[in-house]
Amino acid sequence: MAAIHKLSARQIETLPSGKHGDGGGLWLNVRDGGSRQWVLRVTVHGRRREMGLGGYPALSLKKAREVATHWRTMAKAGVDPVKAREKERRDALRNLHQFADVARDAFEARKAELKDEGNAGRWMSPLERHIIPKIGKVPVSEIDQIDIRDALKPIWHEKADTARKAMNRIGIVLKHAAALGLDVDLQACEKAKALLGKTRHVAKHVPAMPWQEVPAFYEDLSDGTVTHLALRLLILTGVRSQPLRLLTLDQLDGDTWTIPAENMKGAKGKTSDFRVPLSTEAQRVIEQALPHSRNNLLFSGSRGRSPISDMTLSQYMARASLEARPHGFRTSLRTWIAECTDAPHEIAEMTLAHATGNSVSRAYQRSDLLEQRRALLERWASHVTGLSGQLVKLHG
């Protein structure tokens, strides 16, 4: 092997323009302007390769020899050092992706799965409020359980539901990063949970109005406004507020309202619409609401271009000094069914669009029990309007 370490640190300072070999393929290229650049020449698979290592004095003689030794060893193993370095640079650049950037890319990839394509901002909200301000600029490949723990610790017990959602989103972002080819710790969230411990937060249910008090409240909704009529139909049908607010005239067909699958809770993966039987009272409410309809929406906002806001219904009840909220009328209905009827469990749950049984039994249950539910909701309407308080016998 040719002699190596031919140059000295003192000699380098006075070398004239030209190429000066240190041995083993390491050269110092001195340009006319005085700048000095280290270059390594190696042979791989019979092909000569030349690569710049860096400038002197930023890269000292000692360091240049160490770098040269590393790449010569790679070349002897049959690895092209030029391609290997390019790959290292690409990997380094990839791993510089910041958490915030990957989070937004993950959100864009999942928009089609979210309600209204995530335009409400609920998917990103836990990250933007509690995570991105703290670790948004950290390369995603460097994020570990300590970072996640420190970011979530202030809200882990005080805002447990938000913290749970944020942890879920972080896990999705890390999986998205891994799919991009980034080197991330996919177990970081589980490790962070172990460090944070169990939450002390007790989940609170949406306040519901006792079913005995619903008739009096229903009677007060008598001024014929969009808000009053929307609340009346919400009570009578037991649906969630979103499908009610998005109710369009083409969804109505006589005594049946067909809710599109995409408007139902957990719309992802749902392919079938949900039929809601309309009681005689519900049909009367719809007739009263028709003059207010705008742009095919039965319950439109004040300007007529968008649906009535969910907050409109909630704020109405809050201004009335009621603890109960619109969503709670589903509980009112379900409790009335349990206490005042002998409706089978399956009919009761299907009335509220709840899934029943396991996946196998649901696959064989093709009926939506529409007529049985129609009878049940007709009885509920009688109770709500004060016409009947007697025990309902319903066999399914």
UniProtKB/TrEMBL annotation:
InterPro entries: DNA_brk_join_enz, Integrase-like_cat_sf, Integrase_catalytic, Integrase_DNA-bd_sf, Integrase_DNA_bind_dom, Integrase_recombinase_N, Phage_int_M, Phage_Integrase. CDD domains: INT_P4_C. The keyword DNA damage does not apply. One of its GO terms (molecular function) is DNA binding. Residues 204-377 form the Tyr recombinase domain. PROSITE patterns: TYR_RECOMBINASE (PS51898). Keywords: DNA integration, DNA recombination, DNA-binding. One of its GO terms (biological process) is DNA integration. PANTHER family: PROPHAGE INTEGRASE, PROPHAGE INTEGRASE INTS-RELATED. Belongs to the 'phage' integrase family. This is Integrase.
